[in-house]
Design goal:
Blueprint lengths: L19 E5 L9 H15 L3 E6 L12 E4 L3 E3 L2 E6 L5 H10 L3 E4 L4 H12 L4 E4 L17 H13 L3 E4 L2 H9 L7 E3 L16 H6 L7 E6 L8 H11 L4 E6 L5 H7 L4 E4 L3 H9 L3 E4 L8 H8 L3 E5 L2 H6 L7 E3 L4 H13 L1 H15 L4 H15 L3 H17 L1
Parallel strand pairs: 1-2, 1-6, 2-3, 6-7, 7-8, 8-9, 10-11, 10-13, 11-12, 13-14, 14-15
Antiparallel strand pairs: 4-5
């Protein structure tokens, strides 16, 4: 990766206390997706460690879960065509007054939406350091809805958005390298990985009784789709792969819910649809499958891959940055080029025909998952916060070390 000069941030004062964080989210607890769960875990960690955190986000009458920390609702409208999402079109006067009263030392934006951009402008006007975290590849979404022609415009907007930040948290090194390719200074990039609950996602939760209750015989190959039921998660490729492979005794198992449920169900006759699950019920369902087939290339991290790995499943994933960061091909899973239906079908056939290989992949994946810890990941974010408010000399030395680390990746 290219070298660059370390940044200096004369507007960031040294503090004798832990910084006050204003965190902006697109839908902090409206939906139970991986990005929201990571942000809630981060806030819970920070508050337990003595940070003052206030979260600004659209809210809904019936949220997916109770929020961690203090949540301040921001006026919003339903996203056109996807009413489950809310969009705050700016930073209303009442929100600005609340921010002024809170007096944040750092503004953290977690989505490049209008609220995130307004928060950037607020911070820039007041010379408050701006931190961003990258959670998903928004630029990839539009082609799934016949809007691929806007991708270039969206990519240019995202490049400008992240270049404006004093620090950008990428979820893994491949995504950090993509940010550098987009013109973000390596000295402004840090890694915020993710964790996994290895007690909830555990091979020991595999249940023949659960399988039998859903009409899945022990001899069947239960192929799991796990996540929000939306087009950008690869539902068309999942269905096409099973049709192309045409394997006997295969049962698709779909864990999740979303607006594309009907579309997906029409493509998968005979599939088991569990709806949204959480807690131990989710862990049992995942561990009771045999293979995770995840053809989505839109994630920045790939939480479902990691959770399936922890549950001891053999994983077939899109060979996207998120997949490459987690999976060593042939040892902890299999990678297939995004959109390569023949490749996915061949990988699935290999695992169906070779149970011993499938078992070895699952065991190695389970072991690999032990490397991912939520508290350690959150502590990296806390360290990044301190970095952006350090005096210039200490900050420059840390920036050089980070730049060297990214260059070696």
């Amino acid at each position: 990766m290219q070298q660059s000069q370390p940044i200096s941030n004369p507007r960031a004062p040294a503090l004798a206390r832990k910084p006050r964080i204003a965190l902006f989210s697109g839908n902090y607890n409206c939906l139970p997706d991986g990005a929201n769960q990571a942000l809630n875990r981060l806030v819970a960690f920070l508050e337990s460690d003595g940070f003052a955190v206030r979260v600004y986000s659209p809210v809904v009458p019936y949220p997916a879960f109770e929020p961690a920390g203090e949540l301040v609702g921001v006026r919003s409208i339903p996203f056109p065509g996807r009413g489950e999402y809310r969009v705050a079109v700016g930073l209303p006067a009442e929100t600005r007054r609340d921010l002024d009263a809170f007096a944040p030392d750092i503004v953290h934006v977690s989505a490049p939406d209008p609220l995130g951009r307004a928060a950037q402008r607020y911070a820039a006007d007041r010379r408050i350091p701006i931190v961003a975290s990258l959670h998903t590849r928004f630029e990839t979404y539009f082609e799934f809805y016949g809007l691929g022609f806007v991708r270039g415009m969206i990519e240019r907007y995202l490049q400008r958005f992240y270049r404006r930040c004093d620090l950008v948290f990428a979820p893994n090194r491949p995504m950090a390298e993509m940010l550098v390719d987009d013109g973000v200074d390596p000295a402004r990039i840090a890694i915020w990985s993710r964790g996994v609950d290895r007690q909830k996602f555990d091979p020991a939760r595999r249940s023949l009784a659960w399988r039998a209750a859903h009409g899945i015989a022990d001899s069947d190959l239960a192929v799991l789709f796990f996540g929000r039921l939306v087009r950008e998660k690869g539902i068309a490729d999942f269905a096409a792969t099973l049709a192309r492979a045409a394997l006997p005794n295969v049962r698709p198992v779909v864990v999740g819910e979303g607006p594309a449920h009907g579309e997906f169900a029409r493509c998968l006759p005979g599939a088991v649809f569990t709806g949204h699950l959480s807690g131990n019920a989710l862990g049992e369902a995942v561990a009771s499958a045999d293979v995770l087939l995840n053809p989505s290339a839109t994630e920045a991290f790939g939480n479902v891959n990691l959770e399936a790995m922890a549950a001891g499943l053999a994983v077939i994933s899109a060979d996207a940055p998120s997949g490459r960061a987690l999976i060593e091909p042939g040892r902890t899973g299999l990678l297939v080029a995004p959109g390569d239906i023949d490749g996915y079908a061949a990988a699935l056939t290999t695992l169906a025909d070779n149970k011993a290989f499938r078992t070895r992949l699952g065991q190695a994946a389970r072991e690999e998952s032990a490397r991912y810890d939520w508290d350690a990941a959150s502590a990296d974010v806390a360290a990044g916060y301190f970095e952006v408010i350090r005096p210039k000399p200490a900050k420059a030395a840390i920036s050089r070390r980070r730049r060297q680390g990214l260059s070696a990746a």
